[in-house]
Design a protein that fits this description.
Layout (H helix, E strand, L loop, with lengths): L1 E2 L4 H5 L3 H30 L8 E7 L8 E4 L4 E6 L15 E5 L2 E2 L5 H8 L5 E7 L24 E8 L9 E8 L4 E5 L9 E4 L4 E4 L7 E5 L6 E4 L3 H20 L2 H10 L11 E8 L1 H6 L5 E9 L2 E5 L9 E4 L4 E3 L11 E5 L8 E4 L3 H5 L1
Parallel strand pairs: 1-3
Antiparallel strand pairs: 2-7, 3-4, 4-5, 5-6, 5-7, 8-9, 8-14, 9-10, 10-11, 12-13, 13-14, 15-16, 15-21, 16-17, 17-18, 19-20, 20-21
Amino acid sequence: MVCDCVAPECSAELGGTDVFLKKALEELLKCMLRVWCREGQALTRLGSSTHESDKRVVVRRDAGGEFGIRIHGSRPVVVSAIEPDTPAEGSGLEVGDIIMSVNGESVMDATHSEVVRLAHSDTDVLELEVARTCNVLAPRLTRPGIKEGADEMPLCSGYLWRKSASSSNTDKWVRRWFALRRDNCLYYYKTDADSQPVGAVMLIKYDVEQTPELRLHSFAIKKQGAPTLRLAADTEEAATRWTTVIKEAIERNDQVDTWLEASLRMREMAACAIQRPDCFGYLSKQQEHARKTSSPTGWSRRYCVLKDAALYFYDDANAEKAFGVACLHGFRVHGSAPTSGGRKHAFELQSPDPTQRSYIFATESEMDKKR
C-alpha cells in the first residue's frame, strides 16, 4: 500500500482564502463519507440488509512483493490507484473505495500513515472491508460528458470475474465490468467508469456451459476455433441471469446477424453520414506484401471511420461509400508493430483468431495514434 498525497508545493499556488475553502470542503466531504459508512456498519450489526456498495476484499501478495494499492487522504482513506499486474488488480478492489477496516481492525478514524503502517505489519494478506462509492458519488457515463440514452442501455450489465488466459498464473481471475448490448455483443471494460472496452465477443454460434469445477458460479462461453471466455459471478442468481441473457443473444444472432446487417448497410453510406462514430480520420495501412518483408514502402493512406467495432475504409473523406469494412470484435491493440519497417507512430490490431488477418496502421503524430 503506497502513499498518494498531493505535493505541498501544489497548494502553495493557491491563495489563503482558496486553501481555507478547499480544506473546509474536503472536511465536509469526509464527514459525509464517514456518516455514510457508519450507517452501513450499523445496519450490518442490526441484521438489516447491508448497502450494496459494501464489500470484503482479500489481497494476497508474494513474499517481499507489493500489494499494488495506492491510497489518499485520512479519516477515512480512499483507494486512489491500483497498479497494473499486481495482486490488487485481480482482487475486486476499485479506485474510489473507502477502506473501513484492515484485517478486522477499523481504520475509519485512522490517519494516512497509520493505515500504511498497519498494511505493512508483517503480513502478506490484506482483508479489507470497503465502502464502494462508484455510482454513488456520481452517475456512470458511457462516454465522457454523454449520458447513456435509452436506446444505448445494455440488456444486462455488471461485474463478473474473468479467468485470465495470458497470465503465467493459470488460476488468476480478474474483475471486469461486462455489458451485453443491443447489438448482441458482449463487451467488457476494466471498470464501470470506462468508456472504451478492453475486449468484446460477438455472440454468434457460441455455446454456454456451467463450469463448477473451475470456480463457484462460473460458466464458459465457447465455440470451436475461437478462444473460450471463462466467467464467474458473485452469486448463483447473477450467474443464472447472465447465462440466460447470453443464450438469448446467441439465439437472436443465429436467427439474424444484426451486426453484420448493420455493417453492410453502413458500408453503403458516406463517411459523414455515419452518426456518432467512435473515431474517424486518415490512417496509413500497410499492405500484406509489405508486412511479409518488413518493407518501409507499401503503405496506402485511407480515410477510416470506426463505429461499433467495425472499421470502414474510404478513398477519402468525401467518398460516397466505403470500399471495405473490417470486423474488429475481440481484436487487441498493440502500441508497436515490429514488421512496420521502422514506420513512425505505427500500431497493430491483432485478431484473437490466428487464422484471421491482423492489421498494421500508422498515424501522422503520436497524439493521433493515442486517440
